[in-house]
């Protein structure tokens, strides 16, 4: 058994090395979809809302570890509060060619939150919906719970501005076969997408303490989505669901 594991690890290392060479020399020259820093593109404050910066970890040391793991090129994370409504906006960005798609895709609520002890109560993938009048690009939607608190989440992994529709296969626990599969997801990722790794990447997560339908009815969701207009989260689609 140990020999089999070593063989698998050696094969994985060889594949990583060869992929790195391909990634280094065959990445096409692609224009980024985001041309300004996220701080310039997104609002620090939205009229009528209280806004606070949210660190990626509770300690400076933890923040450094998270940044090292994500290896991102830009990040924006703020919480907007109005009355008893709390909405957090997390946006991370990677330049074209800076990270393999799988390295970014695995850091999503279905993976990281589940490992941290959250339960997935409801989940829809590649969902096409019009919310607050905005025809959203295909996105991931879910309800997650920990310690009795429920959080409603919409998130995107955009590759060159288009949704990564394969992210639905990435609900993992912290042990067993799921953990082993996580280590080699990049193999499956290449099978899904080939060797075109030159698109820029944007990970956007909007989370709320209330169902989005409830916030939509109050008119507050329009204010949030309007503030995120520069991220390219919408598309003209006459057949999209309301």
Protein traits:
35% helix, 242 residues, 9 helices, 10 strands, alpha+beta, two-stranded antiparallel ribbon, eight-stranded antiparallel sheet, globular
What can you tell me about this protein's structure?
This protein is α+β, with helices and mostly antiparallel strands. It has one domain (2-231). The chain has helices spanning 2-26, 38-41, 60-70, 101-105, 109-115, 176-183, 185-193, 212-218, 220-227, and strands at 50-53, 74-82, 85-94, 119-127, 130-131, 134-135, 139-146, 149-159, 162-163, 201-208. The strands form two sheets. Strands 1, 2, 3, 4, 7, 8, 9 and 10 form an eight-stranded antiparallel beta sheet that branches. Strands 5-6 form a two-stranded antiparallel sheet. Strand 2 (74-82) and strand 3 form a beta hairpin. Mean pLDDT is 81; it is low at 23-27.
Record the SSE blueprint:
Elements: H1 2-26, H2 38-41, E1 50-53, H3 60-70, E2 74-82, E3 85-94, H4 101-105, H5 109-115, E4 119-127, E5 130-131, E6 134-135, E7 139-146, E8 149-159, E9 162-163, H6 176-183, H7 185-193, E10 201-208, H8 212-218, H9 220-227
Antiparallel strand pairs: 1-2, 2-3, 3-10, 4-7, 5-6, 7-8, 8-9, 8-10
Radius of gyration, CA atoms, in whole angstroms: 19 Å
What is the percent of helical residues? 25-40%
Distance between the termini: 53 Å
Look at the helices and sheets and give the structural class. Answer: alpha+beta
Order of helices and strands: HHEHEEHHEEEEEEHHEHH
Secondary structure tally, helices: 9
Q: Please state the overall shape, judged from the principal axes of the Cα atoms.
A: globular
Q: What is the mean pLDDT?
A: 81
Number of extended strands: 10
Q: Major β-sheet, in short?
A: 8 strands, antiparallel
* Count of distinct structural domains: 1
Poorly predicted tracts of residues: 23-27
């Amino acid at each position: 058994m140990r020999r089999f594991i070593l063989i698998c690890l050696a094969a994985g290392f060889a594949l990583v090395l060869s992929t790195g060479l391909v990634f280094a020399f065959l990445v096409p020259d692609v224009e980024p979809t985001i041309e300004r820093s996220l701080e310039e593109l997104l609002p620090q404050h939205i009229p009528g809302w209280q806004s606070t910066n949210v660190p990626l970890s509770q300690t400076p040391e933890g923040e450094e570890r998270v940044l090292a793991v994500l290896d991102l090129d830009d990040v924006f994370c703020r919480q907007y509060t109005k009355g008893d409504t709390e909405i957090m906006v997390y946006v991370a960005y990677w330049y074209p060619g800076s990270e393999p798609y799988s390295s970014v895709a695995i850091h999503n609520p279905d993976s990281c939150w589940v490992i941290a002890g959250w339960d997935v109560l409801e989940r829809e993938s590649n969902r096409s919906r019009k919310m607050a009048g905005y025809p959203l690009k295909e996105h991931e939607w879910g309800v997650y719970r920990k310690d009795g608190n429920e959080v409603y989440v919409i998130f995107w992994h955009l590759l060159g501005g288009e949704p990564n529709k394969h992210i639905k296969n990435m609900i993992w626990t912290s042990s067993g076969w799921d953990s082993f599969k996580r280590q080699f997801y990049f193999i499956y990722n290449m099978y899904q997408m080939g060797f075109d790794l030159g698109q820029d990447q944007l990970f956007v997560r909007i989370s709320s303490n209330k169902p989005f339908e409830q916030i939509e009815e109050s008119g507050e969701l329009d204010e949030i989505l309007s503030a995120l207009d520069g991220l390219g989260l919408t598309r003209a689609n006459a057949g999209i669901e309301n």
